[in-house]
Amino acid sequence: MVNGGYPATTYINTSSGYMNVGDVRYNTQMQRLEVYDGQMWLEINTSHASVGLTPDAERALDWANQKIAEEVELDRLAASNATIADLVNQKKELDDKIKMVQTLMKEEVKVGTN
Predict the structure, then answer these.
(1) Where does the pLDDT of residue 17 fall: very low under 50, low under 70, confident under 90, or very high at 90 and above?
(2) b/e map 48-83, b = 16+ CB within 10 Å
(3) pTM of the predicted structure, to 2 decimals
(4) Helix (H) or strand (E) holding 100
């Protein structure tokens, strides 16, 4: 139920006509929420939460951004230089072979433990 004597200080409570401890109102003149403590209206802390990244997360993002920039630069160079293009392709083939060997090694461990 919303009621109150002044539009600028409308308050919300469970019984009509009386202010009770815990009643809440929005004070439009002060632009804030207030709660009644039994004697006076107190401002409800309305600060905003702050969200940030841990230093480790920031370093991980920096590393990822650096790797992306390195790949973009290699692709740019490969587009204009046949030798770099060939080396980039060789690197990709080697990366694929490494992944295949890693997968096979993991499978051997699984088979060996069963």
Answers:
(1) low
(2) eeeeeeeeeeeeeeeeeeeeeeeeeeeeeebeeeee
(3) 0.45
(4) helix 82-113
